[in-house]
Structures are given as C-alpha cells and as structure tokens.
Amino acid sequence: MKPFSRKDWVAGLSVAGLMLPEAVAYAGIAGLAPQRALLAAFAGCLAYAVFGRSRFAIVSPTSSSAVILAATLASLPDGDAQRAWAATVVVLLVGVAFAAAGALKLGALASFISRPVLRGFAFGLAVTIILGQAPALAGVTVASRELGPLVLGLAASVPHWNPWSLGLGLASLLAILLLRRFPALPAPLVVLAAGMALSRALDLPAHGVAMVGAIRLEPSWPSFPALSSGDYSRLVQFTPPLVLILLAESWGTIRALALRRGDVVEANQEMRALGAANLASGLVQGMPVGAGFSAGAASEAAGAVSRAAGVVAALGLAALVLTAGPLAADLPRPVLASVVIAALTHALDPSPLARLWKLERDQYVALGATVGVLVLGVLNGMLAAVVLSLVALLRRLATPTVAELGQLAGGHDYVALARHPDARGPPGVAIWRPAAPLFFANAERVFVLIADQVRGQGFKAVVVSLEESHDLDSTALDALIEFDAEMRKDGVQLRLARAHDQVRDLLDASGARDLAARCDYSVDDAVRAALASAPTAQGSAQGPEGSR
User: Fold this and answer.
1) What is the distance between the alpha carbons of residues 62 and 263, in angstroms, rounded to a whole number?
2) How much is the pLDDT for 544?
3) Non-local CB neighbours of 275 within 8 Å, separated by 6+ positions
4) Judging by beta carbons within 10 Å of its beta carbon (0-12, 13-18, 19+), is residue 459 exposed, middle or buried?
5) Is the pLDDT reported for residue 420 higher than 80?
6) Cα separation of 168 and 273, whole Å?
7) How far apart are CA 475 and CA 292, in angstroms?
8) What's residue 459's pLDDT?
9) What sign does the dihedral 102-252-341-383 (CA atoms) show?
10) Burial group, residue 375, by CB count within 10 angstroms (0-12, 13-18, 19+)
11) Burial class of residue 200 in the structure, from the number of CB atoms within 10 Å of its CB (0-12 exposed, 13-18 middle, 19+ buried)
12) Looking at residue 205, what DSSP letter applies?
C-alpha cells in the first residue's frame, strides 16, 4: 500500500462523513444497535486495506446485505441476545465462505448473477427499503416488515401520523437532495447536524418525535445464548444468498471503478479480501460488509490515489463517533430515515430497466427480479430472480436458431441467406449453422430441424458448422452420430465445418472415425470437399439454396 497522500486524507475524511449516517441507518434496517454497523465499517475498511487491491473500494455495511440480514434474524425466535449472537454467526459464516471461495479460485461465481437480475433486484430492494423507512418518517410503529402488511399497516395508521415527524423528515429529504448540487458538502452529515440542533432548539421529543439515542463505539464480549440446531440451520441457509449479493454488489463496484481508471483487479483476490473483512467484522460483532457503490464512487470523486484512503475513512469514522456519538441522543429518527431514503433514490431510476425493454433483451428477467423482491421478500425474491435468469439462459440455449448459409459473390465468406439475399448456396450442398453450442437440451432438436429442411430436396451433401460448439456432451455426441447415420441412409453425405479439436478427439474416442475424417476447419473447405466427393451433384436437382 502506498504512503498516505494529501488526496487520500481528503478522500478518506469525505467518505467518513458519508459512512456515519449510512452505517447508523443500515443498522436500523437490520434491527441492530448502531455501533454494530460502525464497528463493521471500521474493521472492514482496515482489513480490506491490507488484503484488497482496489484504491476506491470502501468496505462497510450495505443496504442490500442489511435487508437480507434483517430477513435472517426475523426467522429466529425473539430476544436481543439471540439476535445479536445470530448476527455475529452469520457474519463469520460469510467471512469463511468468501475466504474459502477465494482460496478455491471461484471468482467466476461473480458472473452468475446477471446485470438484469441486479438491476431489477436493486429497484425492488430500493422500494422495499424506502417503504420500510416510511413508519419512522411518519412517526408511527408498524409491526410487520413484509411489504403487503407494512403498506396496509401504514395506511391504517394515517390518523396517528405525527406532523412534526413527517414535516421534519420530508424537509430533511428535500435538503439532502438540494445539497447534492454542491458535491464538496457532505449532505447527509450536514442534515444530521441540523437535525440535532433543531431537536434541542425546538425540544422535538416533547412533540413526540423519536430519537436515535447515543452511539458508542464499544465492542463487548460476545454472549452465547441457546439457539436450537434448527436456528443454526436457518443461519447456514441464509448465508449463500448473502454471499452472492455481497459478491455481485462488491465485484460490480470494484470492477466498474477499476475499468474507469485503468486499474487491475482480480476476482479471487477480492473474494479473499472480502472474506478477511467479514471475519474482522464478525470478531468485533459487526455486520456483513461489502464494497458499496455510493461510498466507492464518493472515494473516487474525492480523488483517492491508494487504499490508504480507506484507512483514513476508518480512522475518520472512529473520530466522528468518539466526538459526535453522544450527540446522537438528540438525532431525530425521521432525519435518519430521510438519509436512508436519499441514499436509495438513485436506485429508483427506471432508465436501466427501460433500456432492456427497448432492446427487447432480458426485460422479463429484470421485471421478475423486481416483482420477486416485492412479492416474495428480499431473500426469496433474489433466489427467484437468479433461477429465472438461469431458466431464461437455458431457454435460449435449448431453442437456438439454425441459420442456412450461402456464399457471397467473389469471396470465401459464408453468411446467413435470410439476412443476405445476394448470397448463394453451392449446388447440391446445404449449409447450416446452429447459433448456440450443442448440448443435451438442444442437439436432437437442431438435427431434426436440419433433417426436415434437407430431406427430399435433392441435396447430395449437408455441411453443419460447429463454430459455436467447442465441445460436446454425450447426448449431443450421440445425436450427431445418429444424424450422420440418418443422412447416409438418405444418400446425403455429412461434413462438419469449423470442428474444434475437442470434437474431433471425441469422435475418434467414440469410434466414429469416419465422421471425424469428414471434419474441416472452415466452411469453404467443407464445401469444396463435399463437391469433390459428390461430382454428380453438379448436374443433379438443386435445393432451394442452389437456385438462389
């Protein structure tokens, strides 16, 4: 890590001003004491500075992980001691999972949550969190955290809304949004300070406005309450979704910031760093931590030049809590709720989702992720969205398009006849190209489709281009051999173009050496070989592509 520079000091102190209100807010989302989030941010930043590689990443509690942690704790019996211990166990499990995945070089897992899933999930999550803050904004209590009962309970409590709480919360939200026009000002910190000043000046508790209470940065010895084996089993079940969302959010942030600046980062190293950060957070009884985009973007905007900025942010956060923590006893909860809502307004931007509808790609996956979070809850919604994404992928692979190819005049290029009317197919030879890799779910369907188009058309040879299939599973291999036998029975020779070495080796190993000998490295070579081996095709009846 490079020595601390002036820019790192400026960036770190700027980020610390953002981390304090966000950490307190995220602890509230998870239903935990504020110091747990603050200790997590302190430990996470320091651990990442040692093991991580991104100069912009700020590893601290995130909104999405806080919501999933809240869902985890809600599945356990009531009791502060049980919830506190369960949260510590979850954080340690997350740390172990990240460290193990990094050691096993499973960084490719970051790609298993697609961007449409993340966009839809983020939109639904933002709506869920904002509605979850609405009771604090209105100064009422709603027992249920589930979206439907929460909305109904909030509507039923309208006559009891506290006008002081609501007015203060809305004014704070408007102030944060207006202060964003001045990037040099830490808007959340300014609004929190103003809220504490107003609390004392107007005696807001006397008007029924709830307060946050004093914040202390004091780790305590863990207690070990009695949890059943079923409770621990539920904690283990909630760990993979938490790891996945932290991985997707953190790697997306780290990679995006690195690409913008030309930095080099590596997924497996970042997973090990996240593992160390979460283990450190668990040891101080913190919360799950990851590289959130808002803090990382703030660090980049402030000009951080090394990971020292994260260390300064951690030290600055500790200094803020030690000096201003007791003053938080005068911090109104509606003001804190407005900080959370303001932090999530960027996630309500519908343009990324609208772009998917314009492209007509993955829009239903993103919509499913959004609806899943809103209807099924955060955990089940995310799992449903990931499953939906995989189903969409399998559907595309299982129903590929098969293009009929022809040759452009005066060249060796073969292109789809449907898109290039000026292309012509060679006489007596049909050329087909599956648009997806052949595997067990689509191989038989592809070869049936080609056979239906070739049969009875007077072709002497058919060329199948396997450029998309770097390898074949046993089902696709059997389907290919059976297709070859069927074509020979009809008097049609099969040749394979652009066949990869793995496919050739597999054909040899399966005993289909004759078919392996009819493999070529280009479509042009395959067509020439087909014409040379079937000279009568020149004068035979031609198929549809021969007449084009």
Assistant:
1) 24
2) 37
3) 95, 96, 97, 98, 99, 100, 101, 102
4) buried
5) yes
6) 40
7) 44
8) 93
9) negative
10) middle
11) exposed
12) G
Rounded to an integer, what distance in angstroms lies between the CA atom of residue 248 and that of residue 358? 25
What is the DSSP-derived secondary structure letter of residue 415? E
User: pLDDT digits over 466-524, tens only?
Assistant: 999 999 999 999 999 999 999 999 999 999 999 999 999 999 999 999 999 999 999 99
Pairing mode of beta strands 493-497, 461-465: parallel
Cα–Cα distance measured from residue 471 to residue 459, given in angstroms and rounded to the nearest whole number: 28
User: 403: left (phi > 0), else alpha (psi -120 to 50), else beta?
Assistant: beta
First to last CA, the chain: 66
Give the strand order in the sheet containing 461-465. Answer: 414-416, 402-407, 429-434, 461-465, 493-497
Specify whether the CB–CB gap between 43 and 282 falls below 8 A.
no
Overall size of the chain counted in residues: 548
Q: Which residues are bridge partners to 185 per DSSP? A: none
- Contact indicator for 95, 275 with CB cutoff of 8 Å: yes
The predicted model scores a pTM of 0.70
**459's tokens:** 């072709």
Q: Which two tokens stand for residue 523?
A: 């479509």
Structure-token pair, residue 287:
């919360």
Q: At what angle do helices 363-376 and 378-398 cross, to 10 degrees?
A: 150
CA distance linking residue 248 with residue 245, whole number of Å = 5
**Cross-strand bridge partners of residue 407:** 414, 424
Task: Give the mean pLDDT of the chain.
Answer: 84
Tokens at residue 439, please? 């595997």
C-alpha angle 111/343/28, rounded to 5°?
Answer: 95
DSSP 8-state assignment for residue 286: -
